[in-house]
Amino acid sequence: MKKLISYWLIFLAFAGIGKGADVSIVKHGAKGDGNTLNTVAIQKAIDECHQTGGGKVIFPAGRFLSGTIVLKDNVTLYLEENAVLLGSTDLADYRNMDAFTEGLGIEVGWALLVAVDARNIGIEGAGTIDGQGSAIKAKHILMDTRPEGERWGLRPFLIRMVRCTGLKVTGVTLKSAGAWTSHYFQSKQILIEGIKIESIGVAHNDGIGIDGCQDVRIKDCDIISGDDALVFKTTSSKMACRNIVVSGLRLKSNQAGIKIGTESMAAFENIKISGCHIYDTKNGGIKLLSVDGGSIRNIEISDISMENVRTPMLFRLGSRLSVFRKGESKQQTGSLDQVSIRNVKAIAADDAQLMPPTGILITGVPGHDITNLKLENIEITLAGGGTAEDAKQMVPEAIDQYPEIKTFGPKIPAHGLWARHVKGLKLINVTFKLKSKDLRPAFVYEDVKGLVTP
User: Domain Rhamnogalacturonase A/B/Epimerase-like pectate lyase, which positions (predicted)?
Assistant: First the structure.
């Protein structure tokens, strides 16, 4: 893990973003009245900046309406204070430059701000990128009568970075995406620092999505999201999530606070997350999920506080084995190995997905154990309320199912930690506090080999 910092230093080699003149979008006729569609004017400013050697494309104060714009080599978008890049509410104004299928089977990829195969690019400043997600949805459903689960994929992401190298996103506020707020795919040498995300109002409003990226640093961000706040994915088997350092985040979500998976075709390795606060989260606090053939290994998560989180932790190795990109093939079951979680203090919500609440769920599938999982200095406060009958509950294997906490319901036979199909589970100072009596045991182990409880 110590080598992660040295990987981060590679990014500093990309400090010089072009040396051309800065360009204001108003030079090309952009109007900040919130009504004029400025897609062409903004793109002309980006193209000019790129063609003259790079620099900054300046957004002055104002509300600049736009459809899809494409960021190019050596260009940084700089949003001044009170500047807003405002997403159009007309779906016809967006392009999908790298279509793929997400975890529930919907084709997605349309976006407001896109970069594909670009180098040395950035998004900076004290301004805002506002996707107007709720307004897009309201307009969309008037014309598209399909169920929401079928039509939502046409709504645009706020930011999509595809196969880029040398990327810096700092200071800005990202809000109200039509779908995922920010998606970084197969990109390298990424810095995300000091940003604020307020993306709620429609389904699938993930905050920061890191998908098959390497040499990444995320620090000091404040995220409020309708879906997973910080999520690592591998929607392709061709590039792992690797060498990632995360610190100092505040995370609030209607789903998970920190999640690795669900889309999990390639590996997740050498990831270190520390010093984060997760609060008012309606699903899991920390969720590690390999279900599509990828490996999760060499993960360290430490110094985490949680407050009002419905289920603090879920670890799942499964065999859903989905494929998300054309031309790729279904894989064999992956692995979940060498994971360390330490120094976590959590107050679980009284109202959980599975009632009565349980603190930690750990499960592989028959023939595929989770291996070498270490939990150290974990304290979780729970509501209690379990009965002796609840302690007899049999948990479904759900081998090929979507790995959600509710998948393992209706109840869990332990109030603290339930583990199944695990080899090399080490528990050091793992404690559970109850607000009321619970007749289920604190720990239940099924097919657990090499258990260490000093």
Answer: 24-78
